[in-house]
Design a protein that fits this description.
The structure holds three protein chains of three kinds.
Chain A lengths: L12 H16 L8 H27 L8 H14 L8 H23 L4 H20 L10 E2 L21 H23 L2 H11 L1 H6 L4 H27 L1 E2 L6 H14 L4 H21 L3 H15 L3 H21 L3
Antiparallel strand pairs in A: 1-2
Helix pairs in contact in A: 2-6, 2-9, 2-10, 2-11, 3-4, 3-9, 4-9, 7-9, 10-11, 10-13, 11-12
Chain B lengths: L2 H32 L6 H19 L2 H22 L9 H23 L15 E3 L5 E3 H23 L1 H11 L1 H6 L4 H27 L6 H15 L4 H21 L4 H15 L8
Antiparallel strand pairs in B: 1-2
Chain C lengths: L2 H27 L5 E7 L6 H17 L3 E2 L2 E9 L7 H11 L4 E3 L4 H14 L2 E4 L16 E3 L6 H4 L2 H6 L4 E7 L2 H16 L3 E8 L7 H10 L3 E5 L2 H13 L7 E5 L7 H4 L7 E4 L8 H14 L5 H19 L7 H9 L2 E4 L2 E5 L5 E11 L2 E12 L10
Parallel strand pairs in C: 1-3, 1-4, 4-5, 5-6, 7-8, 7-9, 9-10, 10-11
Antiparallel strand pairs in C: 2-3, 11-14, 12-13, 13-14, 14-15
The chains are: A mainly alpha, B mainly alpha, C alpha/beta.
């Protein structure tokens, strides 16, 4: 698979229906009487947070063609923002901390982007990895920033509006938090889909396919790439904020290159270029890890093997497989249907 | 810092830098010649160290172990190239990143299954096992000087290979324009296999030679990998000369940083990299 | 059948099968009167050995009691914590909420422990810490349901200062990695060494997990201290010992350390470690009947020698047994359970120890010297060392 030709932007109808059904199932899940509901609520919320993180990376990777091994830095930074802003004995307001954290992560992305966007290809990959390590060490080595043991976030953010003492909705309640995350997931997805087909998005896709050509046509590719990098960082920040709010604990490893590599895997597993793929990939990846860990002590062997097989046989991910399947079935059934 | 101390720290920095060069040389070759990102490079280093340990145990002699280990790792490199990497030269960097990331897991777990999770030592060969007194309370282990010698010999060897032999000429031609080289009758497939095996062999041999100094333990490849990446980025991908200069720079910055600026020493090397990239986005020496 | 309907039915079948797979564990495990013990330990990675040792020790303690806790059978659940702090909460939650364990035994790595601790405080599950020495778990963040059967990072070094000054080593340099465990070990050293009249010439540190020690060894030589005190562990400790000796520093500058410097690495360090003095709450060579009996039994059962981690796992088991027996298996009777565990005296291979009010062991620290690939106990460095428990509301 080359980044140039991920034709997953438009999915066949059958696949869209499947995905829509899955979304509905997700929305309805908290209402089902399932044993161990609260555990699954937490698990699904976490998967959704990863899905937002993966979508932000997809913007960078699947749409613009920039492979970043340092994307987790922005995810972690936003989480740390919330941790620093939340005092030990009370909750902070969601309404200003979420934007601040996300924009903070975006600002960091902008600054780091100024350095890394100048590089291309393999350089870009390695340079993003090294910058992420730098941010990691910044937090790991400094007790003032929490050091290697990390920081707790003692309270989930409060949704009370300025002045009033009453919560609009209570994020300490797992179901409420679940729906809040789901809403953000859908919002981010809708936003990114719109962006994908906007002039801005088309330029990004063009840069992925052939950057020289775009430059020849007069586009300032540096500026567009930087914008994409910053936007991706901001969205990763949204996910990171939610992570810190949900788990209540941030640690420098959140910004490390392993976290970034996991995000890349999620995006590839699902299928790049179509944000639904990032969501599918996030869920599938997390589920697979749970599965493998349950199976054997040597689960890392399974995981490594799975990744290798995935890259060799299903480079366009689950959605790519699904699309191929859907197109095959459509061909078969439309053929048969036309017979008397 | 007084002058004698400064000289000793200089020596420390150069020695670390030379070791880094040996590690990074393989990585930059594979990048430069085949354009393949190899995140499993640290794993080859680790495999080399573990091979040194078990082969020395078997043969009783580190030198023999290194020769055998080098041969084994070249075979491993050829096998991996033929099985997997060959199909990835034309693929996206992303796929390569992913493939090699998956390989890291496989190698770590295989290592755990074959050799277990204990910490092990490789003995410094007796003939090198003495120290040169530097001051009245500080000595310098002779083996480190041997290591430096090996690294320098390696650097010279690589330089001669790439720039003065027919094989080197073919390698450079293939890197410059693969199709043209092929149409001129150069067996590019073989060249790629050779270069890949060479890269893997270099990493493994680095692990073997460094093992008496570094000890052998799980996950030892991870910090090495990141440092190699930094060296290759600073030096310029594909440039062996760049890797040498960059490795020496990193070695010196890391060494003096620990002593003079301990509070930021963790970040110092990355800051160096950022500074280099500001002025030369493709590293110090383009290929 | 139209394409759409076919796709829908097939995907519904798939989703159904997958969710049944997810749900199945719940259905099967719903009925059982066994005590559920969950291990959250590193089964892969750098600390894999420690995870195995801890579980072995714990199980041995249980088997000595016929494998029962307070008369009830035991069911085990395991999760590999991968020594990954970001997954700490997720992994702990899995044991607590999906597998519904009654006790969570874990873990080794302090960063991961922070995650477990969060879950333990929120869910109230009983958590026994078999290793992680992170201070806050029994200090500012102490909780009645969290018990530690190991040590705090500063306990071994709290016993280091006096032996050093007693041997005439009054000027020392401290060196460690720049991370929380290193800082906490320094805290103990600073307190005990200064109190005993020692002087810390310089405090050196290098980034974790950097193992290029040459620059700092050169620095140490130029500072000319009487001794060096340090905290390192694992592969890095082996390398430090070897580099220290290779640089000839061991001839003139005595090396001291928190015991982990010489745990599990003496085979790798070889002769380089000879003469190194360390303090810790245990030593393999501890010459007491209790320790000998433990070591024999462990070696017979697991075909390998136990280490301090196995002892800590074993003591975690003993602690739980004391509590479970006191409430006759009714682990829901939390008040009585916790009181029993708090008041317990553990007859450990390391010697008898008791719980502090903050749920951390009060134990003797041994002074050990390395000789012949072993940590020989040459005396007691400090008796009944207790962690200060600063900020703990229970203390």
């Amino acid at each position: 698979m080359s980044a140039a030709s991920s034709h997953l932007e438009q999915l066949p109808r059958s696949l869209q229906v499947v995905l829509g059904t899955a979304l509905l199932a997700l929305a309805v899940f908290p209402l089902l009487p399932v044993e161990g509901r609260s555990f699954y609520l937490t698990m699904l919320t976490q998967m959704m947070i990863f899905a937002i993180f993966a979508m932000s990376l997809d913007l960078l990777q699947g749409v613009t063609g920039l492979v970043s091994l340092g994307h987790a830095a922005f995810f972690g930074l936003a989480g740390y923002f919330l941790a620093f802003l939340t005092p030990d004995s009370a909750a902070v307001s969601l309404w200003w901390t979420l934007p601040v954290a996300a924009l903070g992560a975006g600002a960091a992305a902008f600054v780091i982007g100024l350095f890394v966007i100048r590089t291309h290809g393999i350089y870009f990959i390695m340079v993003t990895m090294a910058f992420a390590q730098m941010v990691f060490f910044l937090f790991f080595d400094n007790k003032a920033l929490g050091g290697s043991d990390g920081i707790y976030v003692y309270f989930k953010p409060s949704t009370a509006l300025w002045g009033s003492g009453t919560e609009l909705f209570d994020l300490e309640n797992r179901t409420v938090f679940f729906y809040f995350t789901l809403a953000l997931l859908v919002l981010v997805y809708a936003f990114l889909r719109r962006l994908l087909f906007s002039p801005f998005g088309r330029v990004l896709a063009g840069i992925r396919v052939n950057e020289h050509r775009m430059r020849a046509m007069g586009f300032s590719t540096f500026g567009y790439k930087l914008a994409a990098f910053t936007l991706a960082g901001t969205l990763a920040g949204v996910a990171g904020y939610l992570w810190a709010a949900q788990t209540g604990y941030v640690n420098p490893e959140l910004m490390g290159f392993h976290m970034s590599a996991h995000a890349i895997m999620m995006v590839i597993l699902g299928g790049m270029g179509n944000f639904a793929g990032a969501i599918v990939g996030a869920f599938a990846f997390e589920y697979l890890i749970h599965l493998f860990k349950d199976m054997t002590k040597h689960w890392q062997l399974l995981m490594g093997g799975f990744i290798v097989l995935l890259v060799i046989f299903a480079p366009r991910g689950l959605l790519g497989l699904g699309k191929a399947l859907g197109e095959q079935m459509a061909k078969r059934f439309s053929g048969r249907g036309s017979q008397p | 810092m007084d002058f004698p101390n400064f000289l000793i720290q200089l020596l420390n920095g150069l020695q670390y830098g030379l070791l880094l060069f040996m590690l990074a040389a393989g990585l930059t070759l594979i990048f430069g010649i085949m354009g393949v990102v190899n995140l499993a490079h640290g794993s080859f280093y680790m495999l080399g160290a573990y091979m040194a340990w078990s082969l020395t145990g078997y043969f009783g002699n580190l030198a023999v172990a290194i020769v055998v280990g080098a041969l084994l790792s070249v075979v491993l490199g050829l096998a991996l190239e033929w099985l997997l990497f060959r199909h990835f030269y034309k693929r996206d960097h992303l796929d390569q990143v992913l493939l090699t990331f998956g390989l890291i897991y496989i190698f770590e777990e295989t290592r755990s299954i074959i050799w277990g999770d204990d910490v092990h030592a490789v003995q410094v060969p007796e003939v090198f096992n003495w120290a040169i007194p530097l001051t009245d309370n500080l000595s310098y282990p002779f083996y480190r000087i041997v290591m430096m010698g090996v690294c320098i010999a390696l650097a010279i060897g690589l330089y001669l290979l790439i720039s003065r032999t027919r094989l080197g000429m073919k390698i450079r031609a293939g890197a410059f324009n693969r199709d043209m080289a092929e149409s001129l009758g150069i067996n590019i497939r073989l060249i790629h296999a050779v270069v890949f095996a060479l890269g893997v062999g270099l990493a493994a041999v680095a692990g073997m030679i460094a093992s008496p100094i570094s000890s052998v333990y799980p996950n030892m490849g991870a910090p090495v990998l990141i440092m190699c990446f930094v060296v290759v980025v600073i030096g310029g991908i594909g440039s062996v000369r760049g890797a040498l200069i960059a490795a020496l720079l990193v070695g010196l910055v890391d060494t003096f940083g620990k002593v003079l600026l301990p509070a930021v020493s963790g970040m110092l090397v990355y800051m160096l990299m950022a500074a280099v990239l500001l002025y030369k986005p493709e590293g110090l020496f383009k290929q | 059948m139209t394409t759409r309907r076919l796709v829908l039915t097939r995907s519904a079948a798939l989703v159904g099968a997958a969710s049944a797979g997810l749900l199945l564990p719940q259905i099967v495990r719903a009925q059982s009167n066994k005590v559920r013990v969950g291990f959250m330990l590193p089964y892969t990675g750098t600390f894999a050995q420690l995870g195995v040792a801890i579980e072995n020790g714990f199980r041995m303690a249980l088997d000595e009691q016929g494998g029962k806790l307070g008369g009830r059978e035991v069911e085990f659940f395991k999760v590999d914590d991968e020594s990954a702090p970001p997954k700490g909460i997720e992994n702990a939650t899995r044991l607590v909420e999906r597998d519904k364990v009654d006790v969570l035994v874990g873990t080794v790595h302090s960063g991961v422990q922070m995650g477990i601790h969060r879950v333990a405080r929120e869910s109230g599950v009983l958590n026994i810490i078999p290793n992680a020495g992170v201070h806050v778990a029994t200090r500012a963040q102490c909780a009645p349901n969290v018990f530690r059967a190991s040590f705090t990072n500063s306990q071994p070094t709290l016993a280091l200062g006096k032996p050093m000054v007693d041997r005439g080593h009054k000027k020392a340099v401290w060196i460690t990695w720049a991370y929380a465990a290193g800082d906490e070990a320094y805290e103990g050293f600073e307190k005990s060494y200064l109190e005993a009249g020692g002087q810390i010439i310089k405090k050196l540190s290098l980034p974790f997990p950097n193992v290029e020690f040459q620059a700092l060894l050169t620095e140490i030589a130029s500072l000319r201290p009487d001794a060096v005190a340090c905290f390192f562990a694992g592969g890095g400790a082996a390398k430090f010992l070897r580099d220290y000796a290779a640089a000839g520093l061991n001839k003139n500058i005595q090396l001291y350390g928190s015991g982990f410097l010489t745990e599990g690495v003496l085979d790798a360090a070889g002769d380089a470690a000879n003469g190194v003095l360390t303090t810790m709450h245990y030593s393999d060579s501890l010459d007491t009947p209790r320790n000998k009996q433990f070591r024999l039994e462990y070696a017979k059962t697991f075909k390998m020698q136990p280490d301090v981690y196995a002892v800590q796992g074993y003591d975690s088991g003993q602690l739980l047994i004391k509590g479970a027996n006191a409430v006759k298996g009714d682990l829901a009777n939390k008040q009585a359970l916790y009181a029993a565990m708090q008041g317990a005296t553990i007859d450990s291979p390391r010697g008898k120890w008791t719980m502090s009010k903050a749920n951390n062991p009060i134990q003797d620290m041994y002074l050990r010297e390395v000789a012949n690939r072993q940590n020989k106990v040459i005396g007691i460095a400090a008796k009944a060392v207790a962690d200060p428990a600063t900020g703990c509301r229970m203390a």
